[in-house]
Amino acid sequence: MATLEGVVQDPQVEADILLIVWEAQFKAYAAANAYSDTDYQSLGPIRPGTLEVPEGDTVSDEITGLPGGIKKSVVTETEQSVSFQLPNIEDRGLDVALGSNLMVPTYGTATTINDASPGPDTNTLTSVVDMEIGTYLEINSSGSTGTKHYGTISAISGSDVTVTPTLGVTPANGSDVKVVLRSDHAIGGMVSSEVSLRLIGTDQNSEQHVFFLPRVRMELAGSFPIDFGDGSAAASLTVSGKSIGISKAVGGVDANVHLEHHKLSGDYKLSGGPLQGLVAQLNAEANTNWFVSEAHWKEQADAAAFNDSTWLSLGDLEMGSISLSAQHGRFDYRNGLPKSIKASVFNSVGFEAGMELSEVNARNIELVHAGNRIRVDAPSTFDVVVAGAENTTTVIKLSELSNGFTNAKLVSVRRAAGTGWEKRTINAVTTGTPSITVSVALGGIPAAGDEVRQGVIQEVAASPSPSTTVFALDSATDFAAGDDLYVVKGTGTTVATNTSNSRTRLYLTSATGFATGDLIEVTDVAGNDAAGVAHSNKVEVVRIKSLNGTQAELDPGLTFIPANPDLVRLVLGISQIQSKATDTLTLSIPLSAAPAADDDVVRLDDVAMINGGAAIRHISLRLVFTSNDEAKQIVVVIPKFRLEQNETAMKNPGTEKNASMMLKGKSIPISKSFNSVTILEAARVHILRTTQKITA
Length: 696
Hints:
The protein is mainly beta. The chain is 4% helix and 47% strand.
């Protein structure tokens, strides 16, 4: 540790000193900043054992003589860094840690401090009305143009409120007071934040030790500043930076000062010292943890819509598995003798994420495998009934015999003249003239063009009105909790007759109801392959990469060339049954839209992911962390997240816990206007409170 020349220390006394609590405080850097200024704002208590203030000097030795020896030493380069952890995660601390200085609050109730008796002080705001304990406040220290301070209401007496932590200054009469509902913090931008930092340690003798760093450049050193841990201890916020020296007269000599160490006693102690209520605050805040963590996704979208209802759940995350990495690349300009950092410029920004999903389902399989072709086997093969006298209510003549049509297998039959799907079991198969015999008679004789598909298919009931998570079927007898489901629109459109149709491009008769990013089902009604040879009918599931009029680009491509009258239908989602009550299903993963009456619901008996190809999948990712007191949430949004394939996509934990899936990827920064500044945004962090919290 460095010690400012002239600060007298008695080693016999200080050898027994025990520093019992440290507090970090900051203010925006200005050339004349001093450690004793009253306008410093508290970042809160420092987690014990995490404060590091290492020095790094480079010394050049001049060696002369024979034999050679050191005759002179010169310090040629100096560097001073600082790092610590905060157990309380609040807006100002996060803003400083990110080094962006771009925080944007969203306000609720606004009021002012009125001159009353007693008047306001650093803890108590007078005549502040319509507030509740736990409310997070922004206080302008003087009118509406002073320095902004932040605190949480810890007590209310009449119209007076007490805030924690202690404010650095006494706010003036008329100062603005606003409730902060949420705050947004961008990871990105080209503005390098510089602050003045003072670290106040108080010993058992009530004396203070102050590390004063006059000019600190905050930085992200590769790790996301919030560490949620494994849930066994409180989360922490890591603050780190490097000191930029300032010219200052020390002992009558101009020096490039990076750090000062002050020992203060008696009347010289700083008024915002940690022993003034901070010990109790530390004990209270150390118990704050983040016990709920959930991941959501949507097709790449505007990250500003982080709280809309279109996000789809990926389920809960395993605490301790969450790996978030943020990086601001910088170019440091060094000059002088000794050399030190004079200025810094951002030259890159990045964000990476990895996590363990505790829910293993079809949707998660698709994303974990980076969105390559998904194959849904249950509806993937079907056959068409052909005309013939052999058709009865139990014997169905088919154009071809699909793979999997064997004895004891379940099939679903949809008669054009009938109502919905009828589930039956195959009793016998005839291969010569393809046909199947079912166990229980159908409601009528099937006609040419009727569909016969493997597996169990039912249709959505009109009543009660379906939602994205709850709807009823005509019959849910063969459905149970835990089943994977595939939901598709009952109506769609056909492929248009166009010679430009290919495996990656198709022309639709109508594009109404379709959009870029949609998952679609393409049914090979015509039974064509690339050579025009008829084969067994099949269904493939692909995604629309782009849509220009009725022309759809596909990602990945189909295995066949679509032709008129092949059918294209919108897939509403692949989900899992959370619970079932009679014919009503509740899904664990919401669909992209509420199904309508007669939409098809397929029970998936097999979902496969086909790896291969050059497809790259981008999504928007949202991670939601909720505190154990449910007072606030921390939401991390990555607006453009490139999914990456895992070496181990599915984790086998043995018998200790459930199986899980590993999801990882990298952010693709996007150009974004944030706080009136255009930045390349890699990710964004939101701190939410009260009515702003995400509920689904």
